[in-house]
From TrEMBL:
This is Circularly permuted type 2 ATP-grasp protein. Pfam families: CP_ATPgrasp_2 (PF14403). It comes from Heliomicrobium gestii (Heliobacterium gestii). Residues 64-437 form the Circularly permuted ATP-grasp type domain. InterPro entries: ATP-dep_Glu-Cys_Ligase-2 (IPR051680), CP_ATPgrasp_2 (IPR025841), UCP005522 (IPR016450). It comes from the Bacteria.
Length: 476
């Protein structure tokens, strides 16, 4: 919101003026309204703790984040480029494996990965689209550069919060929202619905699309309910589906209905007990056989989790050059692969300065943030790294950007990141999801660990705004 010399960034002028005019009591009342409305709507997530799993209303910060359209254009191009390369990588590793033969990505890293899906080898994926929905986590460093922190390709969550946050801001601050020329987000939802239907393998004007959920106890269940309603698709659990003669059907009161596309929010391991975990009661027996026969589309494709791996993440810039013959638009955070002895020794000597993550970790769990860790925690991680170095990567601790957030009636700086969602490798939802680390000094923004979110506005950049105002004066 501010430059280093404390001047307000031009795009924030109106927001700053609006919120500065409100008294602390009014700000707190608006924040309470948001909590009440989210609670009434059931906009929740689950915080996992050792003693119990607690369902909480999503914390919402009422001060929006603004991204000028010229910055957004760069981000949009960068995440699209990244998802296109990752999609080609996934097709390659399950077919020709050219990048593995040529050493672009180490073969061992891919084929021994727990998420490498052998059932997908040689399987034809509808339209070659392995990644229909991707969430790319981005941070901004002290120099103002946008850097990619993680790729989420398996079952990325949080898309519903983008739309709920926007609706909440329009309810709480309708006049301010109208004054800004905010890029709309609803067209992206319509595009997503059309795109899902376009993946149907059989020729039909009215394909049946379902969202397969693990059920109401899943941390992202609200996300599932919201999307099924807004996309106009059926919300089903595994027991609602069955397979016959390599076709998938949905049980309805009118009998069995053929299913064309399954937007699955279940991890690979639970999809089909005949192929993956035999004890799974969440999936559908015979589903992978029907998929391999080309009779149903799965979104995202099984086996995409291998590209979520934080060690493989380090090779995405090389993938972009190899598959697209382009230079990466967005850079990675510098990453050390601890399977390499030299890099491992470098990191072990500086653990108090590093962020260490499990390569298959998610949700902000199992991390070491060196500058904030105790000597005992650092020693525990050092031992774990020496025992299984392939299971970890390390990155330098970056002071990621902060944004004013309302805390106990006052605005204080809190660390944020950004998760743009890419649909079909083509459409990016304007703004994406800004996540906030609400605990003071924390770098962990995940909602499962107490983080919150903000509405994110893509607004005209300074030059565009001046042109629009000048044109308006001429017309008047």
């Amino acid at each position: 919101m501010f430059f280093e010399d404390q001047r307000i960034r031009p795009c924030y002028d109106g927001v700053f003026a609006h919120f500065s005019a409100l008294r602390p009591a009014a700000l707190e009342e608006q924040s309470r309204k948001a909590r009440r409305m989210f609670n009434r709507l059931g906009v929740t997530f689950t915080v996992y703790q050792e003693s119990a799993n607690l369902e909480r209303t999503l914390p919402f910060d009422i001060l929006p984040r603004l991204i000028p359209s010229d910055e957004w254009s760069l981000l949009e191009q960068g995440v699209r480029q990244r998802v296109r390369a990752l999609n080609l990588f996934l097709r390659d590793i399950y077919h020709e494996q050219a990048s593995l033969h040529e050493g672009i990505v180490p073969r061992e890293l891919v084929v021994t990965h727990p998420d490498y899906c052998w059932a997908m080898v040689g399987t034809k994926v509808p339209f070659g689209q392995y990644v229909t929905l991707a969430g790319i986590d981005i941070i901004r460093d002290p120099g103002g550069r946008y850097l990619v922190l993680e790729d989420n390709l398996r079952v990325p969550s949080g898309i519903s919060y983008i739309f709920e946050n926007r609706q909440m801001m329009q309810r709480l601050f309708p006049d301010m929202c109208r004054r800004y020329r905010i890029q709309p987000i609803l067209p992206a939802l319509s595009f997503f619905a059309r795109y899902l239907r376009s993946l149907a393998p059989r020729p039909t004007s009215n394909p049946t699309v379902v969202l397969l959920t693990p059920g109401k106890y899943n941390a992202a269940y609200y996300d599932h309910v919201f999307l099924s309603q807004q996309l106009g698709i059926h919300l089903v659990e595994g027991e609602d589906l069955l397979t016959l003669n390599n076709r998938v059907f949905m049980r309805t009161v009118e009998g069995l209905q053929p299913v064309d596309v399954i937007y699955r929010r279940i991890d690979d391991a639970f999809l089909d007990p005949l192929v993956f975990r035999s004890d799974s009661v969440l999936g559908v027996p015979g589903l992978i056989s029907a998929y391999r026969a080309g009779n149903v589309a799965l979104v995202n494709a099984p086996g995409t989790g291998v590209a979520d791996d934080k060690a493989i993440y380090a090779y995405v810039p090389q993938m972009i050059r190899y598959y697209l013959n382009e230079e990466p638009i967005l850079q990675n955070v510098p990453t050390y692969l601890l399977r390499d002895r030299e890099q491992r020794e470098h990191v072990l000597a500086r653990l108090d300065q590093m962020v260490v993550k499990k390569t298959t970790g998610a949700g902000g769990y199992g991390m070491l943030i060196g500058p904030k860790a105790s000597a005992a925690e650092i020693e525990d991680f050092a031992q774990a790294i020496r025992k299984d170095p392939k299971a970890y990567i390390a990155q330098p601790t970056i002071s990621i950007s902060q944004h004013p957030s309302l805390v106990n009636g006052c605005f204080e700086g809190r660390h944020i990141d950004l998760r743009p969602f890419v649909i079909g490798g083509e459409r990016v939802i304007p703004g994406g999801l800004t996540r906030v680390a609400l605990r003071k000094g924390s770098l962990v923004v995940n909602s499962s660990q107490g983080g919150g979110s903000k509405d994110t506005w893509v607004v005209p950049s300074d030059g565009q705004k001046q042109v629009e105002e000048r044109e308006c004066r001429i017309v008047c």
